[in-house]
């Protein structure tokens, strides 16, 4: 399948690498491919420049957001939450219309230290803002509740854990569920939280996630939901 990952950061690369491994045709969206390939310094998190990754992943096409948006039958939003709407605007509403748009971005503000604050919360979420802005896209919030290495390889963790899906379009959630199952998430590990409004819960969990990561000394952690014996 043709899949687009919007975002050249670490998360975009990890997802793109997995999608290539699975045999999908892939485009990665960026503002300016030449500028992205010209960077030689690590990013703010110490990740090597994008071009190092591209050198070992020749099959991935690096395209401007507009062309990348048009390429995929599925589009994955792996952009920083503060600029995600700008990137989607560049991808273009007509390119997103009718498509599954997997949103894993987080509206985080690190300027006050850890854990980050949410810039959208309680009565709204980034997932809902994206769905409102692109009513013809079929937005599914998923994958955002764990670290990118775990998103594409849940077996990294010592036990089976859960992944959540929120979105208004049932068929889109089924397609998203199929994709994450390719990543290794068993069907029974997936929890459908209902409509896109549940993106609030997925995003607000980040306060606990970052607090846990700080206390446990690792980002490679996730939720395992256990209910009473029946
Ligand atoms: N780290 C994790 O494991 C994890 C887990 C869950 C969720 N997330 C979320 O996943 C998303 C991606 O994370 P990341 O660390 O890979 O991303 P990142 O490095 O913050 O974002 C990289 C992308 O943002 C684009 N960008 C930056 N400024 C822009 C602007 N003004 N307009 C349009 N695009 C702009 C960059 O474009 P260029 O390519 O042009 O530079 C690049 O493609 C974030 O929302 C993050 O919160 C991360």
Structural summary, described in words:
- The protein is an alpha/beta fold and 230 residues long.
- 37% of the residues lie in helices and 18% in strands.
- The protein contains eleven helices and ten strands.
- An eight-stranded mixed beta sheet has the order 3-2-1-4-5-8-9-10, with helices on both faces. Strands 6-7 form a two-stranded antiparallel ribbon.
- Helix 4 (65-71) packs across helix 5 (84-91).
- The radius of gyration is 17 Å and the shape is globular.
- The structure holds NADP nicotinamide-adenine-dinucleotide phosphate.
- The site of NADP nicotinamide-adenine-dinucleotide phosphate (NAP) has 24 residues, from helix 1 and helix 5.
List the helices and strands and how they pair.
Layout: E1 2-6, H1 10-21, E2 25-30, H2 33-38, H3 50-55, E3 61-64, H4 65-71, E4 74-77, H5 84-91, H6 93-96, E5 100-103, E6 108-109, E7 117-118, H7 126-133, E8 138-142, H8 148-151, E9 163-166, H9 170-183, E10 190-194, H10 199-204, H11 206-216
Parallel strand pairs: 1-2, 1-4, 2-3, 4-5, 5-8, 9-10
Antiparallel strand pairs: 6-7, 8-9
Bound molecules: NADP nicotinamide-adenine-dinucleotide phosphate.
Radius of gyration: 17 Å
Ligand inventory reads: NADP nicotinamide-adenine-dinucleotide phosphate
Structural class: alpha/beta
Mean pLDDT: 97
| Strand arrangement across the biggest beta sheet | 3-2-1-4-5-8-9-10
* Cα end-to-end separation: 40 Å
Report the sheet-strand fraction: 15-25%
Helix-strand string: EHEHHEHEHHEEEHEHEHEHH
- Biggest sheet record: 8 strands, mixed
Estimate the helix proportion, in percent.
Answer: 25-40%
Tally of helical runs: 11
Overall outline: globular
| Secondary structure tally: strands | 10
Question: Any low-confidence stretches, pLDDT <50, length ≥5?
Answer: none
